[in-house]
Each structure stands twice: as C-alpha cells, then as structure tokens.
Amino acid sequence: MSLLKNINNSISSIIGPEMEINGNVSVKGDLLIYGTIHGNVKSDSDIISAKDSVVNGNIESKNASISGVVKGSLVIQSKVTLKKDAYLKGDLKASIITLEEGAKFDGMCSMVKEEYSNATSTSSSLNTAHEQV
Prior knowledge:
By secondary structure, this protein is an all-beta fold. It has one domain (2-132). Helices cover 0% and strands 49% of the residues. It contains no helices and 19 strands. The protein has a seven-stranded mixed beta sheet, with no helix packed on it. A six-stranded parallel beta sheet has the order 1-4-7-10-13-16, with no helix packed on it. The protein starts with 10 loop residues before the first strand and ends with a strand.
C-alpha cells in the first residue's frame, strides 16, 4: 500500500471502501479511511484518508495525511499533509502543514507550535499565522 510508506505500518483500524458510517468515530491508534464517514473523526495517533474517501465532519489527530474529501475542520497536533487529490473545505490547524500541488483547500489556516496546538484559545504572545489559501 503506497499510503503506508511514511508510517510504521501499524494501522489499527480501517474503514473499507464499501463502508459508510453515520456517527462519530473515535479510535486509539492509527486509522486508514477508504470509505465515507458522516461525523467527526478522532484518533490519538495518525489518520490517513485515501483518494476516494469522504469525511463530512471534523478530524482531530496527532498527524494526518489527507487524499480524499474532508468537509470539516482539521485540528492536528503535529503534521498534516494535503495530498494532490485532497479537497478540504474547512479550517486547518497544525504545527506543520504541507500542501502538495493539486490539493484544494477552502478555509482558514493556523500554524501553531506543537506544544500549543491542543490549546482551545490563542494568547497574544503565541506566533500564529492566519492565511486563506
């Protein structure tokens, strides 16, 4: 699987391409999404969405690699990558943000230091960059 090249091959949960979930998803460990989720998705580790996947809800995780459609906000503790086939319609908050050529992003972007990325409010001393892409 080409999506697993940059991770440690320890996927603990997979949403298959024929699966459609109506409701929130919360997992401990990594999550690989091929199907459709109508609800929020939360992981204490990494989330990977495949090219034809759809998430209609917010995503919260340590790291994320997005290749599918996400209509909701991303709150990522460390690094997020929007791959060339990704479409994000929502806000993005992470410490490290990578946008591949071809990725589509409609929302506000906030880059914060990793130790502050879980904070619910932003202080004036925190260097935060907001830009609309």
